[in-house]
Design a protein that fits this description.
This protein is an alpha+beta fold. It has helices spanning about 15-25, 70-75, 90-100, and strands spanning about 1-10, 30-35, 40-45, 55-60, 80-85, 100-105, 110, 115-125, 130-135. Strands 1, 2, 3, 4, 5, 6, 7, 8 and 9 form a 9-stranded mixed β-sheet that branches. Strand 2 and strand 3 form a beta hairpin. It is globular, with a radius of gyration of 15 Å. The termini are close together.
Length: about 140
């Protein structure tokens, strides 16, 4: 079951500079981490420390073969994905694949936050967008 929007991912090759703009918007850096499977660092910005609040994630490459290397070099910085918190990542991913989403990750990977598992899916039509499913050991949002 989908519990809500966890974060919106923005790709950048300059997270420190992008962070100055997050501060101008009144946001604070609430979490940092790395998703090693994807070769990225992740800075999470929010208006409050409430874990249920939707975050803006600044995603930056940590190596040349990072998951964002190609889109960052071809499209430049900007919107990368929308991440939804789910309560059953495996079942929810299967449901989306059956509905026409394309699996980017064959299996879930550890995310950048403690207790976070993630899996990326792509919806070519009608929105041409990348989606991340996020499941935490301890859910941040409640059902219904």
């Amino acid at each position: 079951m989908f519990l809500g929007i966890d974060h919106v991912g923005l790709m950048t090759d300059d997270p420190a500079r992008a962070g100055t703009f997050m501060k101008l918007l009144g946001m604070s850096l609430t979490d940092q981490g790395a998703a090693d499977a994807y070769g990225v660092s992740c800075d999470f910005w929010q208006f409050s420390d409430d874990a249920r609040e939707t975050a803006v994630e600044l995603v930056a490459p940590t190596r040349d073969d990072s998951a964002i290397a190609v889109p960052l070099s071809t499209r430049g910085p900007g919107l990368y994905h929308v991440a939804f918190e789910v309560d059953d990542l495996d079942a929810d991913a299967e449901e989306l694949v059956a509905a026409g989403f394309v699996r980017i990750d064959e299996d879930p990977h550890p995310g950048a936050r403690p207790g976070m598992r993630v899996q990326f899916l792509y919806l070519p039509e009608p929105v041409n967008s990348l989606m991340e499913l996020v499941q935490y050991d301890q859910p941040r949002r409640r059902k219904g």
